[in-house]
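Page 47, continued from p. 46.
Same chain as before, 176 aa.
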Amino acid sequence: MAAQTQKRRTKAQVTEDIARAYFDAVAGRDPDGMAAFWTEEGIGDLVPVGIFRGPAEIRGFFVGLFAAFPDWEFEVEQVTASAGMAAVQWRARGTFRGAPFQGVEPNGRRIEVRGCDCLEIDVDEGKLLRNTAYYYGAAFARSLGLLPQRDSGGEKAMLAAFNAVTKVRGRFTSSQ
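Result:
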């Protein structure tokens, strides 16, 4: 009798399964597989980069990412889910030696970034409605060489120049 009875999965468990399956497609560098998880109205809000609407735009972003980082590796560290919501903590790494990315030419630098995606999922349809992805954009830029390393002479010089300009601007705006 027990073998005939199937345990019913909770909506939280189904949500986690969908989130993990989506990120399996990310780890597999499969933009078509990723796009298949999205509703036509889905919104990918990659906070440091921008908003992508619908499966085609989301797919396009990842096609560019995978082309720029040919050895891109992605691993899920933890998933926490409730009915229709999942938080996915992850780590990614790769070498910027492929195509240009977001207007930046490849320079062979190795990057590693950690982040967290907050997914809203239509559990009944098995589709993503929204993904708000957070990662430390400054650390990503430092890894690429777009920003100087933390506490370096270059960072100190950049901060000094920024503060000098801010003080000069302040003098002009306060005198008006």
